[in-house]
Amino acid sequence: MGEFELALRKSLESNNTDLIYMTLFHLERTLPSMDEFRYVLNREPMYAEAVNLMLLYYRATKSSGSPALWTDVASAENDLLLSFKTSDVEEKITALKDATTKYTNAKLPAHAKLAEEQIELLQEQGKLEEKPENVKRRKLVGLSISNTMKLLLRDSKYEPKLLPLVAAFAKKFKVPEKRLYRVKIKALAETCQWDALHKFSMEKKNPPCGFKAFAIACLEEGEKQQAENYTARITSVDEKFETLIHLDMYSDALQLAIKLKDPEKLTSVRNLCNDDNICNQADKAAMELGFVS
Does residue 79 sit in the same domain as residue 106? Predict the structure, then answer.
């Protein structure tokens, strides 16, 4: 099996469609059974492109002798398309269930799992729409996971009880912690929920996205003092320097560069700052530290 997979992998890496098709047709003819062919195509996520190309081929040729694998997949793709086109939730779920069955029959468990997860998301979004905490009566069905969280987090300005609902939603769909932090920070800052943002920043000593994300979100909303407060909590000197530069706090950035005796940081301040006084201080420090003669 190794030589077949190597040929498939190399053809995909080449990005040459003709070569990929040649390899696929060779495998289809050479492998002992369609089950073996399915097994190869299902071993690696990168082979999904190969599945799609075979599907396109059998759709275009409308071959009456198309293997059941491609018939099932083509029908499942149509079900998926229907689930996106219809606005009726029950029709969406029915179409996705049909797609799940067909992907399972085609022995494409990864595709089936994705369809199942979409069903679960739609059902959970429907439940959230009916929650009394959804005070703005937001329509959530059909949104992405991130946009669902973002909308509810923004509305937590009017109903704080939405915050634990979002946390439970994120846990259910295994949202990476860093992604959750970034979505929540941005949503709270955009709606000026400064107390909630501060409370959130206190949950972990070292947030997964760092305090820089808090500072930048505040700055984007015109809250420079809030941004400076979060910058003061950054422990990594490199991250703190980058944030100070981002906030145009060149005087503080200069003092940090001098303290660290870092010529690159000193040069960054000198090149980016338009304040003559700070530039002169940077030049003087460079000479005193022996970076220039």
Answer: yes
Question: For residues 157 and 187, is the Cβ–Cβ distance under 8 A?
Answer: no
Distances (CA, A) of 271 to 197, 261, 282, 292: 34, 17, 10, 15
Is residue 112 domain-shared with residue 146, that is, in the same domain? no
DSSP assignment of 21-45 equals HHHHHHHHHHSS-HHHHHHHHTS-G
- What is the tens place of the pLDDT at every residue in 98-151? 888 887 877 778 778 888 899 999 999 999 999 999 899 999 998 999 999 999
Q: Containing domain of residue 191, as a range?
A: 131-232
Residue 200: strand, helix, or coil: helix
Overall domain count for the chain: 3
Query: Residue 78: which of 115, 117, 39 has the closest Cα?
Result: 115
Asked whether the beta carbons of 20 and 53 are under 8 A apart, the reply is: yes
Model pTM?
A: 0.71
Please check whether residues 115 and 141 belong to one and the same domain. no
Smallest CA-to-CA distance from 148 within 181, 176, 132, 126 is with 126
Q: What backbone torsions phi and psi does residue 43 show, to the nearest 5 degrees? A: -75, -35
